[in-house]
Amino acid sequence: MTMRKVLAVALIVIGLIGAAALANGAPSPLGITPSPNPGSLSVNIWTDKPTYTVGENAVIYFTVSQQAFVYIYDIQPDGIVRLIFPNAYSQRNYVSPGTHSLPDGNYRMRVSPPTGVEQLQIIASTVPLNLAPTSYSEPFPQIGPDPRSAGADIQAQIMGINPNPPCPPCGTWATAWTSFTIVPAPSYQPGYCPPPCPPPPCFGCVPGGAWYWYNGQWYYGNPPSNGSGWYWYLGPDGKWHFTIRIHIGNN
């Protein structure tokens, strides 16, 4: 994550499985047991693409069924857990019912290494939780070095929510998650161009000079007088011109 208005989030997608994971009882990325009494509160989270290349911009979508405080965690492929919402650029996490997207302001979510499988987990609560920092020394604060330690702190907060009187706090909470894939950006390899491709740049070349191809590489100067081949020479007009010379005989 950088201090610029660019959200560098490592995203790796193997599928939008948040809802399916909940339905199948799969463990959440942070090891948090779904609330047994979510009431009318439900959440979901997904991304705009199943796979991202390093350097691409990503969009995260989430829905809540009623007004709630929302917290979204990013579990990187190396295990580091970060709070990506609320964040330094978007600190108001009490949202209305419906579908929302991130980024929701003047910043971007740019995919960055490490590559691998990464996950997002959303937690929504009808009461505020002490899960967001009071100030942001970094835009997307690190919560823990691994999901287990981060999840333990989060679990301690949500376990204090009591859906039944007597209160406080009196409320409900719900969670969902998804995963996705991040792949390396393809490295650029300039294609091989055999002669007669234009010669390489030449600083200090003067009209009349020539680039010539000999023994598999370019040379600048005067080509062998008894050699055949193709040549680029710098004309009086300052442009390169292509010529082919064929030498016949011994002279």
Please supply descriptive tags for the structure shown above.
251 residues, mainly beta, Immunoglobulin-like, 2 domains, seven-stranded mixed β-sheet, four-stranded antiparallel β-sheet, 2 helices, rod-shaped, disordered N terminus
What does this structure look like?
- With 251 residues, the protein is mainly beta.
- It folds into two domains: 6-183, Immunoglobulin-like; 190-251, no CATH class.
- 8% of the residues lie in helices and 34% in strands.
- The chain contains two helices and 16 strands.
- It has helices at 18-24, 147-158; strands at 6-8, 43-47, 51-53, 60-64, 68-75, 81-85, 94-95, 98-102, 108-110, 116-125, 142-144, 173-183, 210-214, 217-221, 229-234, 240-245.
- Strands 3, 5, 6, 7, 10, 11 and 12 form a seven-stranded mixed beta sheet that branches. Strands 14-13-15-16 form a four-stranded antiparallel beta sheet, with no helix packed on it.
- The longest helix is centred in the middle third of the chain and has 12 residues, at 147-158.
- The chain is rod-shaped and about 105 Å long.
- The N and C termini lie far apart (69 Å).
- Mean pLDDT is 76; it is low at 1-25.
What count of helical segments does DSSP give? Answer: 2
Radius of gyration: 30 Å
Question: What is the count of structural domains?
Answer: 2
Order of helices and strands: EHEEEEEEEEEEHEEEEE
Share of helical residues: under 10%
β-strand number: 16
The fraction of residues assigned to DSSP E strands is 25-35%
Compute the separation of the termini in Å. 69 Å
Q: Could you name the ranges where pLDDT drops below 50 across 5 or more consecutive residues?
A: 1-25
